[in-house]
From TrEMBL:
Enzyme class (EC, first level): ligase
Species annotation: Candidatus Brocadia sinica JPN1
Gene this chain is encoded by: murC
The protein's annotated pathway: Cell wall biogenesis; peptidoglycan biosynthesis
Function (record text): Cell wall formation.
Classification via PANTHER family: UDP-N-ACETYLMURAMATE--L-ALANINE LIGASE (PTHR43445:SF3), UDP-N-ACETYLMURAMATE--L-ALANINE LIGASE-RELATED (PTHR43445)
UniProt-listed Enzyme Commission number(s): 6.3.2.8
Pfam families linked: Mur_ligase, Mur_ligase_C, Mur_ligase_M
Protein name: UDP-N-acetylmuramate--L-alanine ligase
MF annotations from Gene Ontology: ligase activity
Length: 480
């Protein structure tokens, strides 16, 4: 069943897209995305293009994602000043980062065009299939990518929307012919509560997005709402070693399965070897041997992601041979410990880590993979508010790096108060006080020049952050 047929079917149902949005995005209609360059927004835009919708949009930054959309026929502008919205626009989709004073959004409001959130349209798409939603503070993208890879390997042709590019399966989105819909479920703005999954995953729950939630109790409560949204005949898969998740899962009405490296979990992983960059591990299900697995991506955290993916796909009905084969060929998502290049025996890696826990586990994986090499970490903090709220956590995250270079904070959704209340210099001072060899270099272009003159043979450079710090890794490789 294609999307247009699905919408026709939903006309007669109690919960229809028309009732939710007063709009039916049928073939030929125009949908305008404000913030179309976002990973999730671009993914939904790709799906609608493939369904025959006319897609246009705006974003202040161009990227490979916007270039791909333009190649598919989307009309994209970087002005975002309200002047280039097509006259035939039927619906406007906004990302969670778009504020009410955005000129494009103000134009849409003035013209009376229906405006919906990205998460709402994602939820409406999921209703037409068997939804699988992957949530959690960390590991969502990799776990979503693993599940999508397994389902594709098994021949189930899922639709998926992932918060990162996954080259092995065609990018960050795909409109499949099968009845499964895999979506990375973001908790910011309680967006994941717009989804109606039959299967859910909670990888972990930590303090994040405190500019919205204020405290961990409110975050746990939102995840509790997510847990309660899983259909009663479905499955919720959770990390058994996360105390906050244990609180949230009490709200679930469905079957729950746990995973960890502890034999007390329903799904247990026993790591055999992992220092060479290849994780070999045994999997046990309810105490019984399930199979031997291999992952080509480093870190014990990725073994946990694989356990969650295995639990989900087994519930769906995928055989263990397909799971094992898919995981063995899985090379990861872009910006997740992605090796950008090796030049003159200098290895350059890029990673999306922007939370203290993510930084710590990524550098731990780098140290395990390169135990005798000098590791440089180039970190670009993401959001003034996140840096302020999690300052103490950030200061303790760089112990596995030999040298740290700190860039200026990348602003996203930050108000004027946040921009004056925090500065990278403050983070630099806190990190230096822990004994870490850290240097503050505000501009990315200057960081590239410093690195190019100081890195030596056998060094490893890891760029980290959710902003545009990835440019450093590519520029450095081109210079070396």
């Amino acid at each position: 069943m294609n999307f247009s047929e699905g919408i026709d079917r939903m006309q007669s149902s109690k919960v229809s897209l028309e009732k939710q949005f007063n709009y039916r995005p049928l073939r030929g209609h125009c949908v305008y995305f404000i913030g179309i360059g976002g990973v999730g927004m671009s993914a939904v835009a790709r799906i609608l293009i493939n369904e025959g919708c006319i897609v246009a949009g705006s974003d202040v930054r161009t990227s490979s994602l916007t270039s791909t959309l333009e190649e598919m026929g989307a009309k994209i502008n970087t002005k975002q000043d309200g002047s280039l919205m097509p006259a035939e626009t039927d619906m406007v989709v906004v990302s969670a980062s778009i504020s009410e004073d955005n000129p494009d959004l103000k134009t849409a409001r003035k013209l009376g065009i229906k405006v919906v959130k990205y998460s709402q349209i994602l939820g409406s798409l999921m209703k037409e299939k068997r939804g699988i939603a992957i949530s959690g503070t960390h590991g969502k993208t990799t776990t979503s990518a693993m599940i999508s890879t397994i389902l594709k390997t098994a021949g189930l042709d899922p639709t998926f929307v992932i918060g990162g590019e996954v080259p092995d399966i065609g990018g960050n989105a795909h409109l499949g012919k099968g009845n499964l819909f895999v979506a990375e479920a973001c908790e910011y703005d309680r967006s994941f509560l717009n989804l109606t999954p039959q299967v859910g995953v909670i990888t972990n729950i930590e303090e994040d997005h405190l500019d919205y939630y204020e405290n961990i109790e409110k975050i746990i409560n939102a995840f509790g709402d997510f847990a309660s949204s899983i259909s009663k005949n479905g499955l919720l898969v959770i990390n058994n070693r996360d105390d906050n998740t244990a609180i949230a899962v009490k709200r679930a009405h469905c079957k729950v399965e746990t995973y960890s490296l502890d034999i007390s979990s329903d799904w247990c992983g026993e790591v055999i070897s992992g220092g060479s960059g290849i994780n070999r591990f045994k999997v046990f299900h309810k105490g019984k041997f399930f199979d031997n697995f291999l992952l080509k991506i480093p870190g014990a955290h990725n073994v946990l992601n694989a356990l969650a993916a295995t639990a989900v796909c087994t519930f769906i009905g995928v055989d263990r041979d397909s799971i094992r084969t898919a995981l063995a060929s899985f090379t990861g998502a872009n910006r997740r410990f992605q090796i950008i290049g090796v030049k003159n025996d200098i290895t350059v890696i890029d990673d999306y880590a922007h939370h203290p826990t993510e930084i710590r586990v990524t550098l731990k994986a780098a140290r395990e993979l390169y135990p005798a090499k000098r590791i440089w970490c180039v970190f670009q903090p993401h959001q003034y508010s996140r840096t302020r709220h999690l300052l103490k956590g950030f200061t303790k995250s760089f112990q596995n790096a030999d040298k740290v270079i700190l860039a200026d904070i990348y602003a996203a959704r930050d108000n004027d108060y946040e921009k004056t209340a925090m500065h990278s210099v403050k983070l630099y001072e806190e990190i230096r006080n822990t004994g870490v060899d850290v240097q503050y270099i505000p501009q990315l272009c200057d960081i590239v020049h410093v690195l190019s003159s100081r890195v030596k043979r056998d060094d490893v450079v890891v760029t980290m952050g959710a902003g545009d710090v990835w440019k450093v890794s590519y520029d450095l490789v081109s210079i070396l």
